[in-house]
Prior knowledge:
It contains 7 helices and 7 strands. It has 258 residues and is of the alpha/beta class. Helix 1 (29-40) packs across helix 7 (227-238) and helix 4 runs parallel beside helix 6 (168-188).
Amino acid sequence: MTASADTTITTPSCTLAGRIALVTGGGSGIGRACCQVLAREGAQVVVTDINLQAAKDTLTLLPGGRQHVAVAMDVRDRSSVEDAMKSAQDQCGASPSLLVNCAGVAIIAPILETDDDSWKKNIDVNLTGSFLVTQAFATSLLESGNDPRGAVVNIASIVGKTGCTNRGGYTASKGGVISLTKTCAAELASKAIRVNCVLPGLIDTPMTARRSKDLMRLIPLGRAGRPEEVAEVVAFLLNERSSYMVGACVEVTGGYGM
Length: 258
Ligand SMILES: NC(=O)c1ccc[n+]([C@@H]2O[C@H](COP(=O)([O-])OP(=O)(O)OC[C@H]3O[C@@H](n4cnc5c(N)ncnc54)[C@H](O)[C@@H]3O)[C@@H](O)[C@H]2O)c1
């Protein structure tokens, strides 16, 4: 066997210290757990939510207290997104270099009974919101002149891949998030911003509080996931430990939908 030129394994930095991470939908469920895990990993966290009080409540749960900030942001609204990005930059002294697009709604109805308003709500928050926030984030990071090394994680859903009865607007929005992830990943990789997405299955949060018990039979692990089980994967995808992952869709489902 010939010796390879270099067999050294370099160890990437495993900490997020010195990084600013902006999380949308940070006031509840998976978004809140992302804020907690990212703060534990050393990041300064900008907790954003349409519900500012919920974002402030998340702040009280974060280690490293005063360095984190809460900002109101409605992801559907370009000016709200741009104002929030500017406010994050002003309060933290630099542009965020890490982003989690987690804000979401699930308006449920059979396709024959889906009205324009509920269709639009799913698309506006879940898909248009991910687009608007990613665009504002990447613009702010690239214009900042700081080290542009960035990472984005979009929270899609396993049903964006599989489809699901009674969730036409929701599944279409999440399928859109999957393909938006891949396009952004392809365009932004050359600018040193990696984009990936996570496809959660059934996770225990306020969004899924009223669910049928029958669902458990479909999950090989036999239980719903916990928000922090998604957040740990998000933290990995934001970390340089996943430096060669671009445009990946990581399923966190207990085996559902594989
Ligand atoms: N819980 C699950 O089983 C599950 C499964 C797959 C994907 N997801 C996705 O994970 C994400 C988080 O969901 P969750 O279960 O934690 O739900 P959740 O309801 O607990 O949290 C959603 C958060 O988004 C915020 N939000 C809603 N509309 C907003 C807007 N226009 N602008 C900014 N913030 C807004 C809410 O205020 C709330 O804090 C969503 O994108 C959801 O689709 C959840």
